[in-house]
Design goal:
The protein is α/β, with parallel strands linked by helices. It contains 13 helices and 11 strands. Helix 2 packs across helix 13.
Length: 331
C-alpha cells in the first residue's frame, strides 16, 4: 500500500465530517460522491439542495449519503451569523454585515468548522487562495502556542532512501514569503506536528540554509540559527537541528563530515526552508526532475484544519485533501 492509500485508510478509520463549499463545481460533487461511497469521511455540501441535486443528475453523480446545508435555511444561518458577529465585532463587523457574510458559502463553511458542526474544511477549486483562506484566518486563527499559519507539501519520492521510506515534508512552500526567525520557528514546530499526524513516526526536522553549522555568516544564516534555537525551546522533545545545507540534512556521508553528531543530519524527513523562494523552487524541482509526487500545498498551524486546493485540482486531489483534513482534525 502506497503512502497516499495509507492516508485514505487512516481517514476511513476516523469517520470525520468534512465540508466542501464549492458545490457549483463538478469536481467537488464527484469528490463528495467518492468520499462517501468509499467511506473515507462523511461529507457536508453547501448550497441550495434543489440546485445541487439537479447538477448532480446532469453530471450523473450519485450524492446519496451526502448531507446538504444551505445558508438559505435560517434555522442554521441565523445562529451562525450571530456567532460570526460575536467573533468579529471588535473588527467592525455589525450584525447586518455578519448576516450578509454568512450567505457566502466559504464563510458559512468556515463557521460550521468553527462551531464543531464539521471537523474539516476543503475548498479552493474555484477560488483564489486569499479568498478561500480569508474566512479561516479571520475566524479559526492559529493554533494555541503558535502565531503563524503556514503551508506544507508531502513529497512522495520514488527513491525510498529519502526521508521516511521516500516520504518527506517540505515547508513553507506556499504561504509565508519572508518568514522572520520567530515565524520560521513556528513553521518548524507546526511541521513536526503535521508529520506526526500524517506519517505517525518521529519527525527529524532540518532547518535549511546555504550554510552548515557556521560555515558561512550573514543575516540570512543568523536568522536560521536563531529560528533553530527558538524552535528547540518551543518543542524541546522534537529532533530539530540547523542551520544545515540540504546535502548535510539528507545524506549520511555528508552529515558525517559537516555536522557530525547531529540528531537530524543525514536522516531528515522534515525540511524547513528559509523563505518562500527556496521552498517553492525546491518542491517543484523535486517533483519535476526527481519524479516525486507532491501533495499540497496544504495548510498547517490553524486551530482546526482548513485547506486550500489548487484551481487546477482533480476530484481525486480533493479526495486526498479531504482525507488529510480528517486526519489533521484528530488532535
Amino acid at each position: 500500500m502506497n503512502f497516499a492509500d495509507q492516508l485514505l485508510e487512516k481517514a476511513r478509520a476516523l469517520n470525520k465530517k468534512i465540508v466542501l463549499p464549492e458545490t457549483e463545481d463538478e469536481r467537488t460533487l464527484q469528490a463528495a460522491s467518492m468520499l462517501v461511497k468509499e467511506k473515507i469521511c462523511r461529507v457536508v455540501l453547501i448550497g441550495n439542495p434543489d440546485k445541487i441535486n439537479s447538477d448532480a443528475r446532469q453530471w450523473r453523480i450519485d450524492l446519496s449519503g451526502c448531507e446538504i446545508m444551505s445558508p438559505e435555511d435560517k434555522s442554521i444561518s441565523e445562529p451562525l451569523a450571530e456567532k460570526l458577529y460575536q467573533y468579529r465585532k471588535e473588527k467592525g463587523v455589525t450584525p447586518e454585515i455578519a448576516r450578509n457574510l454568512i450567505k457566502d458559502y466559504l464563510y458559512f463553511g468556515t463557521m460550521l468548522l468553527k462551531e464543531g458542526i464539521v471537523d474539516g474544511y476543503v475548498a479552493g477549486a474555484t477560488h483564489t487562495t486569499s479568498d478561500n483562506l480569508r474566512p479561516a484566518l479571520q475566524i479559526i486563527k492559529a493554533r494555541q502556542g503558535l502565531k503563524t499559519v503556514s503551508s506544507f507539501f508531502i513529497m512522495i519520492h520514488p527513491d525510498k532512501r529519502w526521508g521516511e521510506n521516500g516520504v518527506l515534508l517540505y515547508s513553507d512552500c506556499g504561504m509565508v514569503e519572508m518568514p522572520s526567525a520567530e515565524q520560521l520557528a513556528d513553521i518548524a514546530v507546526a511541521s513536526a506536528g503535521t508529520w506526526k499526524q500524517l506519517v505517525g513516526t518521529e519527525p527529524r526536522v532540518a532547518m535549511l540554509s546555504y550554510s552548515t553549522k557556521g560555515s558561512a555568516k550573514s543575516p540570512d544564516t543568523e536568522k536560521v540559527i536563531k529560528a533553530t534555537e527558538l524552535a528547540k525551546k518551543l518543542a524541546p522533545d522534537v529532533l530539530i537541528d540547523g542551520e544545515m545545507q540540504a546535502d548535510a540534512a539528507l545524506i549520511p556521508a555528508v552529515a558525517e563530515k559537516k555536522c557530525k553528531g547531529s540528531p537530524v543530519g543525514g536522516r531528515a524527513n522534515v525540511l524547513i526552508f528559509p523563505d518562500l523562494d527556496a521552498g517553492n523552487i525546491c518542491y517543484k524541482i523535486t517533483e519535476r526532475l526527481a519524479g516525486a509526487q507532491a501533495l499540497g500545498p496544504l495548510v498547517q498551524g490553524m486551530a482546526k484544519p482548513a485547506h486550500d486546493l489548487s484551481r487546477g485540482c482533480s476530484a481525486d486531489d480533493i479526495v486526498k485533501v479531504a482525507a488529510i483534513a480528517a486526519i489533521m482534525s484528530n488532535l
